[in-house]
Design brief:
With 299 residues, the protein is α/β, with parallel strands linked by helices. The chain has 6 helices and 16 strands. The chain has 2 domains: 110 residues, no CATH class; 173 residues, Zn-dependent exopeptidases (Aminopeptidase). The strands form 4 sheets. It has a 6-stranded mixed β-sheet with strand order 12-9-13-16-14-15, sandwiched between helices. It has a 5-stranded antiparallel β-sheet with strand order 7-6-5-2-8, with no helix packed on it. A 3-stranded antiparallel β-sheet has the order 1-4-3, with no helix packed on it. The structure holds zinc ion. Zinc ion (ZN) binds next to loops.
């Protein structure tokens, strides 16, 4: 999904019927069983962020990303159990859309039997820095790299587990601050009803995390987010959970536009103890953040 798609991905997703075909790394070693059935309706799993549509049950090539079709009604007539070249068994279903412009084989877990829910609340999750800005450094990594390579996949995994809010992700190859302040895009392009959560890591003398909030008192969501930090990392003693700041220019654009946001400083990237806790609990932290955002428990 391109830059515009990343921002407008809130419903207005471009569909390319003439997608190019890409070779896959893990393929089918053996087709164990095939079952056909009467055409049955399926829908793309809600909040799905990735999912190959393979051109055949041998999984050699894929031509579409299922996540680009969040509102499509699919028809399925066949399923198969495969042994893959990575040694794992998996079930795949053959699907096609109404005019058959998109068709192929998808992992069954990327489908659901009910249509996407009509949700009012939309969230945009943003990994800080990027596009040449490394952000803070420490413990052999950078803020931009850690957020994109470690935190983002976990957040995506748990985002797909909630159905009461729509969660999208800002294009990770972009830096929202640069987009906003240099190109007058970024935070200027975000729909006013969308809520924005920005992810960062702190550095340079200190430990613990906190939430930068958009008004003087934290919202219920800010409190839920801070409790995740408190549980797994500990709070930065300088803030005790929250910091109300008006000197962050990108945040000020959101505030002036009336957009609800939180900016999470999870931990100090250059603090050894913080970094150890961050790595150890990353999965639970990401789960906690998505639960805090959606205000729902994930099983
Ligand atoms: Zn940062």
């Amino acid at each position: 999904m391109g830059f515009a798609g990343g921002l407008l991905g809130l419903g207005a997703v471009a569909t390319t019927a003439n997608a190019t075909t890409v070779s896959s790394k893990i393929q089918t070693a053996k087709v164990e069983s095939v079952q056909t059935y009467k055409a049955t309706k399926y829908y793309t799993k809600f909040n799905l962020t990735t999912g190959n549509v393979y051109t055949s049950r041998y999984l050699k090539n894929y031509s579409h990303n299922l996540a680009n079709y969040p509102n499509t009604t699919w028809y399925s007539t066949e399923k198969t159990t495969l042994l893959k070249t990575n040694g794992k068994k998996a079930e795949y279903r053959y699907i096609y859309n109404a005019n058959k412009s998109v068709k192929g084989w998808v992992w069954w877990q990327n489908l659901q039997t009910k249509p996407a829910p009509k949700v009012k609340t939309q969230y945009l999750l943003v990994m800080g820095h990027g596009a040449g800005d490394a952000g803070a450094r420490g413990n052999g990594t950078t803020e931009a790299t850690y957020l994109r390579n470690k935190m983002l996949p976990k957040l995506k995994k748990y985002a797909a587990e909630v159905s009461n809010v729509k969660i999208t992700f800002y294009n990770p190859s972009h830096d929202i601050v640069k987009d906003t302040l240099t190109y007058h895009k970024g935070s200027y392009d975000i729909n006013k009803k969308t809520k924005v959560i920005m992810f960062h890591l702190d550095a340079a003398g200190g430990h613990g995390g906190h939430v930068i909030i958009h008004s003087k008192t934290p919202t219920a969501r800010d409190r839920r987010l801070a409790s995740v930090i408190k549980k797994y990392i500990g709070l930065n003693p300088a803030y005790q959970g929250y910091s109300f700041r008006t000197n962050l220019n990108n945040c000020n654009v959101l505030r002036k536009r009336g957009i609800d946001y939180s900016l999470i400083e999870t931990a100090f990237i250059d603090n050894k103890s913080d970094f150890t806790k961050l790595n150890k609990h990353l999965d639970q932290i990401a789960k906690g953040y998505i639960e805090a955002i959606a205000d729902r428990q994930i099983k």
